[in-house]
Write a structure and sequence with these properties.
The chain has about 475 residues and is α+β, with helices and mostly antiparallel strands. It contains 15 helices and 19 strands. The longest helix has 25 residues.
């Protein structure tokens, strides 16, 4: 009898696909540690150079029983913030990310493979899962010590100071003048969150967060209910921010800039009393339009002569009938387009002899539009609108986590990528083109090697950023 032929061993982890010419196409899972976030090592360097997560950790109180804690507070914060920067918007994502040795190395885990975890069920999972990370959002100061599951408490005032401190520390030299841009936006809500209200302008239930930027630097991200004026709370926010800035830079000149939603007597009077210049948009009305009529007639004559849209700027003195406490300088833009008149106004404390009307409107005021791009980055790129928790204070913490991720990405853009094609790129572009790089991770006793894809098309920019970060590395690192 003929002996049966030995069968080829079948590997259940290998899959065969349609051939490419004479070559077989097979897929298996023997590649070792691989990551799609190989470029995220740049975020680690930025974070360590500026100590963002370390400083943020000082804003929390950790009352957990130390001998049983495997995920230190700075590691939890870094995991959450780096995850947002890399595009992982929800806590649920971290139940899969907790297996990633590269992310574990980024956040500072000494055991990036998780081989030495205390419990057997956790071995091979170096990072925290969603339930552990959730503790960052719920603890209350004064109650954390007695709450078994919410022993990590946040200090909101310390977080507010953190954002201003990072702005101040980003400057090697004290600027002569800074401009603080204020704006409100909508954060749509689709559940029964605490503090939800219907906002007629935005046409839905939402929060109404207040943002304050200085250039690309984020100084304030305050979650607010939508049943109030756009400028609500702006005096209190400016009061603390200006005081903190002047404590470090007593001679700096400060200007505040915002749209017409902030042209309120209380805010303008505060600025006037505290030597802060302001330039605010001003909603038009019949009285303002009447004051602008001579300039509109002039612009109409110019338009008829040239056949092109024309604009004429003029200085006015104006006071409302009841709401303003004093007369103020108003700049009117008398513009005639091919569709008809388009009058616009701003109110300012800047004297006429300091900046003329045209420059003040076109160069100073219109530049505030760039702030809206920064808000879009927060909302669209870094998931600042993921405010689905029931409690408003929890959603505020989620907004802050997104905001710190923005600070991290903006620092990468401003420092490591200055002068490159990515110097003004949005956070989503940085993520897609510099951070989402295929990589093989090799871990030994003495080193961690992250081998990036050989076909990565932006190697020169990446290496330039890496060299800059190495040169800026703190001496103690």
């Amino acid at each position: 009898m003929k002996a049966p032929q030995a069968q080829t061993p079948c590997n259940q982890q290998t899959s065969s696909f349609q051939a490419l010419g004479s070559r077989k196409v097979e897929v298996d899972f023997s590649g070792g540690y691989l990551s799609s976030d190989g470029g995220s090592i740049l975020l680690r360097e930025i974070d360590r150079n500026h100590s963002f997560t370390h400083q943020l950790a000082q804003c929390f109180t950790d009352s957990r029983f130390a001998p049983l804690v495997e995920h230190q507070l700075p590691h939890l914060l870094a995991q959450r913030i780096h995850g947002i920067a890399l595009g992982y918007e929800d806590l649920n994502d971290h139940d899969e990310l907790r297996l990633d040795p590269l992310l574990a190395a980024l956040v500072g885990k000494a055991d990036p493979t998780g081989a030495d975890r205390r419990l057997e069920r956790d071995r091979g999972k170096p990072l925290a899962g969603k339930s552990t990370l959730n503790r960052l959002e719920w603890g209350l100061a004064g109650e954390a010590e007695d709450d078994r599951y919410r022993r990590i408490a946040i200090d909101p005032e310390a977080v507010d100071r953190f954002f201003v401190d990072t702005f101040l520390e980003a400057h090697e030299e004290v600027p002569e003048q800074i401009t603080l841009d204020l704006d409100a936006t909508d954060d749509p809500l689709h559940g029964g969150q605490e503090g939800r209200f219907f906002h007629a302008y935005y046409g839905g239930y939402c929060y109404l967060p207040l943002y304050i930027f200085c250039g690309s630097h984020l100084l304030c991200a305050r979650l607010r209910q939508a049943d109030q004026d756009a400028s609500a709370g702006s005096v209190e926010e400016l009061e603390r921010i200006v005081a903190q800035i002047r404590e470090r830079w007593p001679e700096v000149s400060i200007r505040v800039r915002a749209d017409s939603g902030f042209a309120r007597d209380g805010l303008m009077s505060w600025c006037e009393a505290h030597d802060v210049e302001y330039v605010f948009g001003l909603a038009r009305n019949d009285r303002l339009r009447e004051l602008l009529d001579p300039a509109l007639d002039e612009a109409e004559d110019l338009c008829a002569e040239s056949g092109e849209p024309e604009r004429v700027f003029t200085d006015l003195r104006y006071r409302t009938l009841k709401s303003w406490s004093r007369e103020r300088r108003v700049v009117g833009k008398a513009e005639i387009t091919l569709r008809g008149p388009n009058p616009r106004f701003i109110v300012t404390s800047v004297p006429e002899d300091a900046i003329d009307a045209t420059t003040l409107y076109e160069t100073v005021y219109c530049a505030r539009g760039d702030m809206e791009n920064r808000i879009k980055e927060q909302q669209l790129c870094l998931f600042a609108d993921r405010t689905s928790a029931h409690l408003m204070r929890v959603n505020q913490i989620r907004l802050w986590m997104s905001s710190v991720a923005y600070v991290l990405m903006d620092a990468l853009r401003r420092t490591a990528l200055a002068g490159t094609e990515f110097a003004r790129a949005q956070c989503s572009t940085l993520r897609l083109k510099l951070l989402k790089i295929g990589a093989r991770i090799r871990i030994s006793v003495r080193r961690i090697v992250c081998s990036l894809a050989s076909s990565f098309p932006r190697q020169e920019v990446f290496l330039l950023a890496a060299r800059r970060l190495a040169q800026a590395r703190p001496l103690a690192a």
